[in-house]
Amino acid sequence: MTTSRIRKAVFPVAGLGTRFLPATKTVPKEMLPIVDRPLIQYAVDEAIDAGCDTLVFITNRYKHAVADYFDKAYELEDRLERRGKTELLELIRNPLPSHVRAVFVTQHEALGLGHAVLCAKPVVGDEPFAVLLPDDLIWNRGPGALRQMADHAEQTGAGVIAVQDVPREMTSSYGIVATDGFENRHGRINAMVEKPRPEDAPSTLAVVGRYVLQPGIFDALESTQRGSGGEIQLTDAIAAMVAQGTRHDAYRFQGTRFDCGTHIGLIEATIRFALDNEKLNGPAREAMQRALDELGVASND
Ligand code: G1P
Question: Is 174 in the pocket of ligand 1 (CB under 6 A)?
């Protein structure tokens, strides 16, 4: 088992984002904003905070906006510079810190999350790495969720999977794990299943979109057959490794997760980040109160 620190982070961003149509007809769902930053930026920041210096985006032919976002915008920079808009210029001048590089890999076919991760194999090579699903936005005042997990992975050499408890009726939306029991925030996984029906779920501990994986996952993915939804599932490859005795720990991270793959999750994240923003806190509260009052009056009419 390797116990080195993760340096590479994989972002599967080739999904169609059909839940947010019509917005996602032209805008990738990863580019939907929470306050002033697109979802992908929050995930990237979390990866950099965890110590990653190589960002691997698994993308497709419709997602040029993601690559453009991390590229230089010469014309815009030039215009802002000439107008003396230094604050705005700073916001776009360096999309990534100088020690961080972005790599784009095309996923030609939408064969599932497991397949997307396998596309990163030539870039990741033989070292532990992270996978972040940008739909899952994790808010925390302290260290980011991935940093917490990377610390645990570095100490143990285990694969580490973020989890949170969900109501039993929700198990069919998640990968679900069963563990040997928990010590502090982590427990060793002994079973893992993708999107089980509530009556079949081995627990109510759901996988959240943050993983620290050991490079052995690529071999496991190569022999993984299509599973839930007819797709090659990352969950199935991890389950196969677990069955062979490779340690993977479920990790109850510190922080609040917003499922920005759903309408209400995106709205809730927006509310949270607005209320946590110095400039927007007051106006956001007032706006919410006004909306409640006005709708309340309307429904009493
Ligand atoms: C994916 C994973 C699932 C996990 C979820 C977390 O599912 O396959 O195991 O629980 O992300 O967001 P998706 O939401 O892409 O269907």
Answer: yes
